[in-house]
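Q: Hi! First time doing this. I have a protein sequence and I read that you can turn it into a structure. Is that right? Here it is:
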Amino acid sequence: MSAEPDHRSTSGVERVVAFSDGVFAIAITLLVLPLAQARFREGHVEEDLLNLLPEFGAFALSFAVIGRFWRVHHRGFLRIARADGTLLTLNLVFLFWVAVLPFPTAVLGQHGDSVAAVLLYALSIILTGLSSSCVWWYAARGRPRLRQGAEALTHPDTDPREIRTALARGLGAVSGFVPSLGLAFLSTTVAEFSWLLAVPLTVLAARLAGRRRD
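A: Yes, that's right. Below is the predicted 3D structure, encoded as structure tokens:
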């Protein structure tokens, strides 16, 4: 008689990934609703299309942001061998903020010159990024505890430098949105352009993390 497979060995990682992908797909689809629901006046189509540019810009920005979060989540879970209750909870917190993102995106698209809209969007991205980093940090932190008999959540061949670099990229991207929290009170336009800092800060943080010795 063949032994039954131990379903506990996988700890539902596949289900976690499948559920997460579903949330990402729904969130990224909801982003386009403000554009899909737009109304055009007879004889003023060109003008109404131009008026939609801020909303389209907010849609494109959030599409790229959620797409990046999905890529990070996908790469991270390729290295995760098992999931415990804490990891599931942290992943749900992260998915909560992903699911929320269409709301600040719609507010930003319609009221991009409002300080409140800029602050709401920046804070949403920061909280989403921090919760994403918490998922990966918790999954990876079990490795040093192997000496104490704890079972690591990541695969044994996971390179510590890869863990460090992934965390640095996430925190670097988040830090690019922090300055806008103050700049928004001076100029919402400057605050929104400051979000571009996320790109060089992500690259810089990854390089610095890669140079550190294990």
